[in-house]
Amino acid sequence: MGANTLNRSLQPKAVIMVLLMMLMLVPLTPVSTAADTNPSNLQAQHIAATFDPVSETTTITWQNIDTYNGNVPYYHSATYFVHRFTEPITQSNIDSAQVVDSVAACQANVYVQYAWCLSSAGGNGGQHPGHSVSYLVAAGTNSTFYYAVTIEWDEDGTTVSHEELDPDVSTLTIGVEETTSSIETPLYFQASYSLADSETTLTWINYHSPLLPNTNPALPNTTILIWRSTTEISRSNGGQVYNQLTPIANISSELESYVHAVPPNTNEEAYYAITYFVPNKTGPGEDFVDLRFLSNNALSQPILEDNRPPTHVNVFSVSTTSDEQGFGETELTWFGVPGEFGERYDLYVSGVPFSSIYNTGVTFLASVYENQTLEDSNAPYKYTRQLPVGTLGWAYYCVVTVDAIGLFNELTSGGSCDAIQEDAFSNWQKEPTNVQAEFIGDRTIRVTWTDQLGVEGERYHIYSSNGVPTNSQQFATQTTYHGFVNDNTQVYDIVIGPDVVSETGAVLNWYIYVTSEAQYIHTNGSFEYIGLDQNYDGPVEIDITSPTWPQIVTAESRGDLGFVAMEWGNMQELNEVYQIWRHNGNPFEDSSISVADEDGWELVLDDINVGLQSSSTIIRNVPIPSGSEQDAYYAITVCDQYQNCNQEIIDGMTSNTRLIREDARAPTIQMELVDEDGIPYTSPSLVPGLYTVKIESSEYLKTTPSIEVFSSEGYNETAGGALMTQTADNQLNPEKGPEYSFEFRISGTEKASDLFIRMTLIDLADNQGVITNTSFKIDAQTPTIAVYAPSPSAEGSKYLYGNKINLMFAAEDDVQIADLQYRFTFNHGGLTGSPSTSPWANAEGITDVDGDGTSLVSDMEFSAGTFDAGQHAITVRALDTAGNQKTAQVVFVVDFCRNNLEGETVCTFEEDLKPEPEPEVITPSMSEPPYVLVWIAVAVNVVIFIAALLVVQVSLSGPKRKKKSGDDDEDDDWMSEFIGTTQDLDMDDITGTGSAAEGKKEEESKSGSASEPEEEDDPFAVNTVQRKTRRKKKAEEEEDDDDDDDDDLSWAGLDDDDDDDDDDDDDDDDDEEVTPRKRPTRKRPARKAAPTRKRPVRRKKSDD
Fold it and tell me: Could you tell me the sign of the dihedral formed by the alpha carbons of 850, 852, 857, 858, in that order?
């Protein structure tokens, strides 16, 4: 189908579609007619109504008449009424219809001329655009409704009504389908504002509450939206609420209350509303919010939320008057706050300035309510306060504005406060009396006074001025405040701080003042009088200069006496006091100056008061702890009679400090004993020889140490003591002390006894140390040893596999046993194998019989299964502390025994010791099987030999026929080949006579030559004739060798070869002497006598 044909076929369809679309644009209800209907009564024309399901609103429209008549002037006073009913509205049922609205037919102030009230659609000069009324259909409506419009006007004071209801002109004949949703919003919505909390509380009952009948649970994910607006929220502006406002909360649909915190400084009327938010109610992404507000879920009356306090007054002043009788009054004056209605003014007073009426001590005086007359005349408010008798001091007044709902600002401002000094105390003294001050030392001034009369609860303040007195006008700038005390306290100590110094070192002159501060009838707050009538004393001499530091003369440690002796110069001050300090560290690590109150300094001697002592130096001894040995700094400080202390500690030889070695500990040593080879001797027992005692002292000594070496049995090397020899001073090695030595000799005649080595050392602090070493003994005897187990083999005992071998031996020594050891010698004596010895091992299971190591017993066990069957030995030895030793040995047997099949007990070691049995020689008899075979072989060989002789005899006796050459020779010579010949017998060669014998000898001589090479056997050669009989002695030996070879293989029936010739060939291969001697027979002359039987013929046959 072509494009034109397709277009022609579609044209009718397109026309139809256009007509249908134009038809859809034609309203179902006629909106105009060609001419007005019943215009004389100003009947509404062209009525129409449409329903909007979104806003659930029906909009009714109509027009005025468009032709002028005599009643047109009544349009200015005419009113249209809109009626609604479930049936078409007629004269008969219009009274039952609902009047939903009324509108002015033509506003006279807009359409001034009557003709302008005509419809603008008529073309007759009318300007009225027509009327429109929107009716909000009630919730839950689902029906058809009809609308009609009637008119009435005022005619000369008479109301004229016209209810002409022409169909589709002023009344609808086609109803409007109105369908609205049911109400599902919260009920009984209420709101209340709390001024104290600045919060608005909202409450409601949920539509889905189980307390309500016929309700279902809320849909899933339903929440509650809470709206707030400064204008009323209703059905008429619900759409605007949703589009223009943001909910203040989105909460769970289970809640039935909400508290909204009103922001500070708020002062406005607020409307609240509440709705449900149902997501995806009618479909995905189709959320539902009921904005009709038909269930009283919106406030119809606003709630005032006011937390903005009124402003303070701008002008406020106070004034006071008093007389000599003690009476007085104070007047407060201010102007009202503009813009406030129904307010009041609260007055407050305090003895001190205050920024809030809630401050401590603020007292409420009175409330003054609004006086509109004063404000209208711009006159000030006034309040007069009568002062109580005895009032004295500064009073601070403030005025606070409170609005009609009780809101106020508790903070004060400068414009709403004022202060004044009030005095109703004229008959009493306002300060203390009898003020006295004295410098008592330790940088302290003690001040005393007599209490003020006439008041209670006063407070006294103490001041000072330096050099000259002051007056009340300069008191604040020329005095220094030190502190206060309360009533009934009449003494105060001024402690002068370290920042106050005397530049020249001279005394200071101060004046001291004491003032009184009392409340003087005020509830709180007080007044301090500074008239300076009689409340001071001075000048007071003050000495705050510290003395110089003392100088140490000598300082040394006396360890033997247990103290450090200190001597320093006397300062010659009056009643000074000294202190001695000690520091165990290094106080001068960072600086050469330290202070006694720094960390590390310890006061070891205090209150060294020398009084009026006039000696040039002072000596004191400082105890040191017993056993102490350390370096410590000692320092001396001083305080004068006024407790001015010089705490500085200076490092140096002419200062007030010294580094002293505190030494109350006797010197100690490290001792070592070496032998004459210089090797350290570690054994506790000494054998005869030369020994050297070496010691290293823990510190330097004042004198050379002395030594005594002696024993309890009369040995005495030093005879009362001897001096040791210094071997090294180690001055350059701080880690080591001085070293000394002493030699002594032990002879072989000395008795065993304890050796005493006693040394006496005196250190630099006179501490004496006497060290006695008793760890060595003189020992010249060897120990004894005895073995109790195992049982020796000499006694016939042995240990079987599975038994335990017990090793028990004991040793004794006159001094001390150092070690018990043992070792095994396996296969002792080499009876069953090579001997081997294990290394020495320390014995176990040792018992010290006497507890002093002189008698030891060892008891051990070994498993016999760990030894091979055989003879073994165990050797034990005992070593004493001097190195003397004694050994003993026991030989024992370990065997493995078992029963054999005959029931006999067989032991491995016993069997190994038995001699080897003699071999048994068996001589078989001539009738036993080996000899029977021999006899049979001999018989067979005899029979064969006889048969061979017979064959030879027959062949020699027969005629000789000449054979033709060729292949026929083979057939004729079958017998010759059978007997091993290739030609006629040569008897000379057989008998060994004639030329054959000579040739034989020649061949033998040639074969005996070593230079002739040996020919190889030809496997295809024809065997030459060799007799089996012996011709010569040498030939017999060769034949015998062959026979012996055969006999060796066949005497016992072990020869499996069937061919004797093959055996001979094998023998020929093995025997190098036989083979060359047989081959020369091939060259005998007889071979030339028979040319028809040449060897080449045999080779040709073999080749074939």
Answer: positive
